[in-house]
Write a structure and sequence with these properties.
It is a single chain. The protein is α/β, with parallel strands linked by helices and 406 residues long. It has two domains: 2-160, 2-Layer Sandwich (Nucleotidyltransferase, domain 5), CATH 3.30.420.40; 209-388, Nucleotidyltransferase, domain 5 (2-Layer Sandwich), CATH 3.30.420.40. The protein is 37% helix and 21% strand. The chain has helices at 24-30, 73-82, 120-128, 137-151, 170-173, 179-183, 193-207, 259-267, 273-282, 285-290, 296-300, 305-328, 339-344, 346-354, 365-369, 393-404, and strands at residues 2-8, 12-19, 40-49, 52-59, 62-69, 100-105, 116-117, 156-160, 215-221, 225-231, 234-238, 334-338, 375-376, 385-388. A hairpin with a 2-residue loop joins strand 3 (40-49) and strand 4. Helix 2 (73-82) crosses helix 4 (137-151). The longest helix is centred in the last third of the chain and has 24 residues, at 305-328. It starts with a strand and ends with a helix. The mean pLDDT is 91.
């Protein structure tokens, strides 16, 4: 069974192809075996310059990168898909061999608590929810339509980033604002759910326990950052909210700030609403404080006082966020670090966990420095396990496609 996965963002699109036999998804879900690698991977980057895009392909042990004339997303996606069956990256004879296509959809709102087969109603709902995720849902919808144009009526599946957090209680999801706002859909939805759910399941495999027996804090730390408190296999609290802007300090996003700051800036006439949105999403976080970069590696390599302050602020807010997640649980069995920063920054892991020594948390310094992947980096005597897990959202999406195809 050939499963194509599309992960469409506001400025890029990632895609991969899995070739699965009948038993592999089930075996990987139930044991600690490594998830399979895709046989083809691709990315389109639209940030280079208007009218151009960079297409990167990895297949057959070969990496290809080239610039393409960018006409529109559908046409660009078709060019990307053509590399599946053409040239040195060819892995299939024709695109009709693809059995099903899975899409990461950022916002499913109150409508979707699990993955679904895509039909016109699903498409309309994704479009309606674009008002809550204007940078992502339209791009997700374009990805669906591009597949319709290029692959015809191949079955498509929507896997929602918000679905895993649909188990939040009303007390955890409601904001302390007029109740009628809640009735209009203003609530905490949470994001990165595909990653949090994958890492929770992978943690259970690595620890040799049933997920339902574990109490976890999962830390998705990349350019975007969020935490989740997971108990009985369900998300009971998370840091992102109505939008992916709330919560932790991120690469270029501010995370939570006093809403009075926004009122002050707009009342003073210093910024328009659009300008405030641009600053909070694109010019804040690590970039905003350091003045150097949204990339943690570049900030940590700098010796300026602003860069040092950016790191200290990042760690302070991460510690505070983890503390709030622990407060939502009835105990703690493991903390999981994942995504670009979580998987690669020994500094962030060690500095963060220092604050929780009173819980009996102990990191093994050698394991922490060894670029661990899917490993327990805590000491034997640690009362809480510390795991580093390579998040595999594409594989999680492929598994849901496989399940829905049965």
């Amino acid at each position: 069974m050939k499963v194509l996965v599309l992960n469409a963002g506001s400025s890029s699109q990632k895609s991969c192809l899995y070739d699965l036999d009948e038993s592999l998804p089930l075996l990987a879900a139930q044991s600690a075996i490594e998830p399979p690698a895709p046989i083809w991977e691709a990315q389109i980057d639209w940030t280079v310059q208007p009218g151009n895009a960079v297409l990167k392909i990895k297949a057959n042990g070969t990496k290809v990168e080239r610039s393409i004339d960018s006409i529109d997303r559908s046409t660009d996606t078709l060019q990307m898909l053509n590399t599946l069956s053409e040239g040195e990256t060819k892995v299939i004879h024709q695109t009709r061999e693809i059995d099903i296509v899975g899409h990461r959809i950022v916002h499913g709102g109150q409508h979707y608590r699990q993955s679904v087969r895509i039909d016109q109603t699903v498409k309309d709902t994704i479009s309606d929810l674009a008002q809550f995720a204007p940078l992502h849902n339209p791009a997700n919808l374009q990805g669906i339509e591009a597949i319709e144009q290029s692959l015809g009526d191949v079955p498509q599946v929507a896997v929602f980033d918000t679905a895993f957090h649909a188990t939040l209680s009303p007390a955890a999801s409601i904001y302390p604002i007029p109740y009628e706002w809640y009735e209009k859909g203003v609530q905490r939805y949470g994001f990165h759910g595909i990653s949090h759910q994958y890492c929770a399941n992978r943690a259970a495999q690595l620890l040799g326990h049933e997920l339902s027996d574990l109490r976890l804090v999962t830390c998705h730390l990349g350019n975007g950052c969020s935490l989740a408190a997971i108990e009985n296999g369900q998300s009971i609290d998370t840091t992102m909210g109505f939008t992916p802007l709330e919560g932790l300090m991120m690469g270029s996003r501010s995370g939570s700030i006093d809403p009075g700051v926004l009122l002050y800036l707009m009342r003073e006439g210093a910024y328009t609403i659009d300008e405030v949105e641009q600053v909070l999403n694109k010019k804040s976080g690590l970039l905003g404080i350091s003045g150097i970069s949204s990339d943690l590696r570049q900030v940590t390599s700098s010796e300026t006082e602003q860069s040092k302050l950016a790191i200290e602020t990042y760690i302070h807010r991460l510690r505070s966020g983890i503390g709030s997640m622990i407060g939502s649980l009835s105990g703690l069995d493991a903390i999981v670090f994942t995504a670009g920063v979580g998987e690669n920054s020994a500094l962030i892991r060690s500095r963060t966990c220092e604050a929780f020594r009173w819980l009996g948390i102990e990191i093994d310094p050698e394991k922490n420095q060894s670029s661990p992947v899917d490993q327990d980096i805590s000491t034997r005597s640690s009362k809480v396990r510390i795991l580093v897990i390579h998040t595999q959202e594409d594989w999680a999406i492929a598994q849901d496609c496989w399940k829905l195809s049965r």
